[in-house]
Amino acid sequence: MTTEKDNNSTDAPADPSRRKMFRLSAVAAGIAAVGGAGTFISHRVEGVPFEGGFPMPIDDKVLKPFNQRNWIFSQGGSERNRAEFPNRDKAFSELIGEEDWSFQDGMFAASDYTRSPEQWDNARPGYQQIDWALFCAASHPLEYLGKMAKFGMPDAPGICGWPQKNLAPVKWQFASKKEAATKIKRAAKLFGATRVGITYNDPRWNYEPMYNIFESKEVSWDEYPFKPKTVIVMLHEMDYDAIRTSPSPASVGAVNKGYTDMAVKAGSLADFIRRLGYKAIASHNDSINKVAYGIMAGLGEGARNGALVAPGLGPRVRISAVITDFDFVEYDKPRNFGIMEFCEHCKLCADRCPSKAITFDDKPGFKPTYEGADNPDLAWAGQIGVKKFYNDAKKCFKFWADNTVACTNCIKACPWNKPDFWHHRLIDASNTFTKGPVHTFMKDMDTLFGYGDMDVAKATKLFWNKED
């Protein structure tokens, strides 16, 4: 017998997912009430300026400039490195249980832009000929603009080279530092940068030595054409729908487009600065720690997955920079967006990392905790001494090799990566004042709405059939 109470019950629905949605909706409403008006939310999204240098705690006894010989591409691509550090390959082979696994072979298997028909799998969405075509074509301009810069080569031939072409004999004079910052950022936006920040040169975040993997030689800053004073940092947004197809070649098509953007836009801005009479060099994957400089320039925060996370974009960005001797400019300040605190409770990127390279540590620390971290032959990939989350880049790269192409699952999974839907902007707006339990609810909300957990076939179909 059905009663009126049964038909009009106010009890929570039986479906657990619906119960969770109602609970999250209630939390969201509470956060919105706390947030107040749109101007307040906008202020929160902009972040809280940090006074006093680098915003993340540093162990000065440990932190040193990063030796680019310890970069994973340097180990994988340099015959000199492999000859002088053979135990690195050996130790990692033992760790993963594959005898004689080669970083060099893995590097080129994952990064080669020429894919033969043998690698097409037309029965597998995301890995079909059309997906590989996208992957290759997106990086095609780098063949002419400077492919080697993508692999970290300092003074790479092309648009990121060190020659001071078009350097004007007369220096343009700005009326104020603020005007200089405004006009430089305006030029960068015209050239296509998604966001721009300006900060001072800090030698702690400059590779020392730099390393040319193609010629297997170290490069010192004493060889640089000028003394760096300012770093202009640019973010380049990657296509959301393409990233959602990760770990397919289509997703890395978005990454390769980002690499092309880095060269074109940083190269254009460096040329602009030189035509104003100041020395400038476009930096791609070479020379400096761009995540650190992005943090200094107020563009985002470091995150669990090791990337820069920018509000409204998440880690779905590539970062380029222009290094210059021009310093009559207003510098941006680092900002607290609540991202690191959110990462402590979220862990979605770690959950969805296919190689388990991303740490599940509850709190950031000053050194890595992954397996083998105390072995110098297994703990050579990152810059330690900063309080952050440390991940095992070697395991990440091993999956790239097995997948025959790079992976962006940690970007795809991140709640900050998502399009401009209300509950994601709610996350952005509230993170500077909400704490752990609410962050956990926000993570659940992201999963409940179906973001970041889509299978490759479905995501690939949506990508190729989307109409603007």
TrEMBL record:
InterPro entries: 4Fe4S_Fe-S-bd (IPR017896), 4Fe4S_Fe_S_CS (IPR017900), RDH (IPR012832), TAT_signal (IPR006311). It is found in: Cell membrane. The chain crosses the membrane at residues 21-41. GO terms for cellular component: plasma membrane. Its cofactor is corrinoid. One of its GO terms (molecular function) is metal ion binding. Coiled coil: none annotated. Residues 334-363 form the 4Fe-4S ferredoxin-type domain. It comes from the Bacteria. Keywords: 4Fe-4S, Cell membrane, Iron, Iron-sulfur, Membrane, Metal-binding, Repeat, Signal, Transmembrane, Transmembrane helix. This is 4Fe-4S ferredoxin-type domain-containing protein.
